[in-house]
Amino acid sequence: MKIVLAGAGAFGEKHLDGLKNIEGVEVVSVVGAHLEPTQAVAAKYGIAHACTDLAEALALPGVDAAILCTPTQIHAAQAIQCLEAGKHVQVEIPLADSLADAEAVLAKQQETGLVCMVGHTRRFNPSHQYLHRKFTAGEANVQQMDVQTYFFRRKNINAKGEPRSWTDHLLWHHAAHTVDLFAYQAGPIVQANAIEGPIHPELGIAMDMSIQLKSESGAICTLSLSFNNDGPLGTFFRYICDNGTWIARYDDLVTGKEEPVDLSGVAVSSNGIELQDREFIAAIREGREPNASVGQVIPCYRVLGQLERQLAGR
Question: Is the pTM value of this prediction over 0.90?
């Protein structure tokens, strides 16, 4: 299967690392905003073609699919471009930074019938997979999720500490992970509320945010997000259930008493990005809807749209 990867930054390389481990997959082109660094990434991974035009890459002979790790603001337009070119597409989270754009991608996927998947990695991390199986088997039920998403990002930099050409967003990007995961683990969301802190004078975004959610099952979620946190970075999930408590930190899982949980048999890899890419490839090969398809995650973006209107006082 021939894949094009657009976005040769920090997350693009995470996908290239994961794709190396999937049999029968060849990345045939890397697309980036600037040619020289894009060529450097292509050379690092032994990829023959590099360019700055997604259309050029999609037109290469035999291309089956694209993975988009580009700036959030162009995710929706590029996803539609790929689908219109007849290519399956995986869009890194978030699908879009507006509900209208997210709905437009869904409409195009339904029109084409192609695989369109969104990078909601938490669905694939072994820690969350382990708990999802418990919940679907009826062995436990979520009562509350307490989630902290913390970064120290007062300047516009990416995960590698390099300058970014676009502005990240707590609501449309980082909250999307937890809003979708909460619904995935506890059921459809029926109530949502958000408040935000001061707007950064240069970045133009809120640097702190608090979100409350309630699911159809009655479970609740409290999500705290910050770009101001000068301490441990990342997202930490506490699952308080009717039959146990667990804490997920990246791909690790412990009980509420900090006892490690063995995740070795949960999946073929401990890398959530690789598992996400494996699902994308498998769905194309098997002609089926993937986990985290645009249709499955659109409720998350509808909640985010509702929260955006609430924060704007509309």
Answer: yes
